[in-house]
């Protein structure tokens, strides 16, 4: 336990717990696995900052996807802290003195977090992006209301697209790939971050679909092709397509979109459903306008998520993507707590 200068006796996690939580929560998804976040703990408050040096200025000129990525890690962090017996009081965005600060977290011991927190925290480690074809999600009627409740808590709207729009989205994905292929800067960003074997960041080639595998999915970003494999070659994609929409385009809303995205991905992982986050469709105005006409709720589409069930007889497992060392993303400063943290009984 350490003492907050403003409120005597307020307990906070010790540095070892902070470090362990950030290291695990860094499994959060991000655009091309750029991991565009920085954290700073001053002995009382844990702050999340956007790492502007990791912005992909052609793919993401407004840093919208960068902020969404940071929001996803923010929810991962809150989930893992809850599993370790800490409630996180989050103040989101921004401080005029620190325009890159997206959130500040203060702590309270939490002896009775929700019963499903342990499963969600485990899902942080086990979640993967599955870019291959999927079957319809098993148990979808039971899962969907939970997803809607989770996103509503972040003031985010969730819509499920009708199967009839899939050909339009697949055609748009191909059109965008052709259009973006003429953009030297976009192409450079794509090939810099995807299809290589860096041990710290980016998308390794083994995590990408081959041309034949992607053809059975159709909806999504066209990446450099992965290894010449033919997994799941006996069926076409039947995943549900889910859209997350914001009330408005703003940094606070983008943070909440990221938090809602994280909640959806973890809940689906617990339900043994596979997911793949798609942001290429919402990068250009025409794509967002098309999605707006496909959803029933008012809002601005931000992210599409494929949700499905992988084949039970399939030996393929999506490859984990690398992560930066925790020392690259976390700074510990300020007074050091003098006693171990309070945590849940295990």
From TrEMBL:
Residues 311-346 are annotated as: Disordered. SUPFAM superfamilies: FMN-dependent nitroreductase-like. One of its GO terms (molecular function) is oxidoreductase activity. It comes from the Bacteria. Transmembrane segments: none annotated. NCBIfam families: Rv3131_FMN_oxido. PANTHER family: NAD(P)H NITROREDUCTASE RV3131-RELATED, NADPH NITROREDUCTASE. This is NAD(P)H nitroreductase acg. It comes from Nocardia aurantiaca.
């Amino acid at each position: 336990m350490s003492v907050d200068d403003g409120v005597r006796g307020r307990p906070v996690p010790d540095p070892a717990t902070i470090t362990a939580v950030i290291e695990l929560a860094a499994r959060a998804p991000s655009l091309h696995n750029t991991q565009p976040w920085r954290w700073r703990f001053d002995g009382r408050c844990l702050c999340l900052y956007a790492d502007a040096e990791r912005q992909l200025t052609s793919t993401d000129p407004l840093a919208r996807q960068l902020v969404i990525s940071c929001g996803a890690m923010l929810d991962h962090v809150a989930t893992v802290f809850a599993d370790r017996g800490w409630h996180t009081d989050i103040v989101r965005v921004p401080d005029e003195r620190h325009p890159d600060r997206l959130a500040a977290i203060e702590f309270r011991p939490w002896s009775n977090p929700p019963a499903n927190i342990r499963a969600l925290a485990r899902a942080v480690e086990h979640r993967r992006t599955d870019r291959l074809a999927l079957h319809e999600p098993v148990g979808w009627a039971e899962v969907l209301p939970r997803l809607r409740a989770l996103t509503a808590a972040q003031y985010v709207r969730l819509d499920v697209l009708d199967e009839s729009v899939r050909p339009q989205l697949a055609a748009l994905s191909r059109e965008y790939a052709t259009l973006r292929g003429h953009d030297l800067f976009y192409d450079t960003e794509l090939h810099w971050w995807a299809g290589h074997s860096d041990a710290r960041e980016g998308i390794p080639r083994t995590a990408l679909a081959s041309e034949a595998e992607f053809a059975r999915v159709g909806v999504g970003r066209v990446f450099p092709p992965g290894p010449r494999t033919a997994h799941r070659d006996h069926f076409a994609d039947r995943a549900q397509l889910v859209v997350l929409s914001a009330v408005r385009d703003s940094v606070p809303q983008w943070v909440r979109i990221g938090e809602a995205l994280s909640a959806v991905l973890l809940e689906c992982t617990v339900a043994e459903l596979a997911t793949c986050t798609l942001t290429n469709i919402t990068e250009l105005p025409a794509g967002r306008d098309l999605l707006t006409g496909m959803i029933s709720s008012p809002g601005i589409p931000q992210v599409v998520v494929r949700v499905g069930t992988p084949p039970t007889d399939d030996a393929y497992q999506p490859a984990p993507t690398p992560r930066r060392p925790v020392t690259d993303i976390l700074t510990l400063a300020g007074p050091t707590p003098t006693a171990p943290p309070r945590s849940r009984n295990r």
